[in-house]
Amino acid sequence: MYIVDMHCDSIGTVTAERGLINKYNFSREYAQLQFVASFIPAEGQSPDVRRKRLMRHLDVYIAERERLKLVPILTCHDLNFAVEFEKRASLFSLEGGGGLFADSEELNTLYRAGLRVLGLAWDTNELAASAWDKNDTGLTAEGIAMVKRCSELGIILDVSHLSDRSFYELLETTAYPVIATHSNFREVTDSPRNLTYDMAKKIAARGGVIGLNLYPGFLSDTGRATTDDIIRHVDYALENLGEDVLAFGFDIDGTDGAYPEGITESESIHDRVIDLLLSRYSESVVEKIAGKNAIEFFKCNL
Fold first, then answer.
1. pTM of the model
2. What proportion of the chain, given as a percentage, has pLDDT over 70?
3. What is the pLDDT of residues 1-36, one digit of tens each?
4. Which domains can be identified in the chain, with CATH numbers?
């Protein structure tokens, strides 16, 4: 089994004493590709300040990647190598437009440095309205230009955190597959951060994948979750989307330490969830959710 986790915020916690990999955010049992997300909120921060934060994250990421000897995933050939030889690997992603603009040299620089997945907004910014914004203005003109530029470069667009209008306008702007790196299902848990049935079906119809998020507020309407709530979302995905769409996008280190009951930072979270899934589903289905679905997508789209 090879694990792919499409969203983790651990780059923001790296210090001189604490590295990118720790006992709970990587598997102890299996090789793993971890997406390393640079989290760039917009509120109260100028575009210049956000760009500088993003570039600092990139510097830290490259240093940690080299120190830990992680295989950098930039192309499908890199991914094939990592999976075939069971190597730990990493892929750089962006959560929030970071004050970038479609015609900026920074975007080209980021692509050359390894950025392959980009979410336009975490909170509402110059590019798009976020899922939490009640005034859903959708994509801006600059956001539409950014979607087109990412499609030209080969940067895969992540719809997690987008408002409903932003989501549909993004799909109208690009014909390429999109992904939701860390989003659950609104019919199961009524959060604006989760995908509606129609959204999930449209992602699946384009060949995209959806990463299961472990944040309790996206797993349960009560804000407190158990492992049963994880299963409810997995069951929903399997029943409504089939076996080839759901992936991992655990949002580790992006949940302020909040996880479903029974999931703790005292052990590998990935191994704990895999054991949970194996207790209910066949090994072939678990292998798809844990990694194969994401691997097949990125082999075709990197």
1. 0.96
2. 100
3. 999 999 999 999 998 788 999 999 999 999 999 999
4. 2-301 (3.20.20.140)
| Total Cβ atoms within 10 A of residue 222 | 10
Closest by CA position to 150, among listed 138, 162, 158: 158
Distances (CA, A) of 146 to 153, 175, 192: 10, 14, 23
Strand 115-119 to strand 89-95: parallel, antiparallel, or no bridges (unpaired)?
parallel
Concatenate the DSSP letters of all residues of 82-137 into one string.
Answer: HHHTT--EEEEEEES-TT--TT-HHHHHHHHHTEEEEES-SSS-SSB-BTT-SS--
Give the strand pairing for 115-119 and 210-212: unpaired
Q: Where are the alpha helices (DSSP H) in the chain?
A: 47-67, 76-84, 105-113, 141-153, 164-173, 197-205, 216-219, 227-241, 269-278, 283-287, 293-301
Distance from C-alpha of 167 to C-alpha of 196, rounded to nearest angstrom = 11
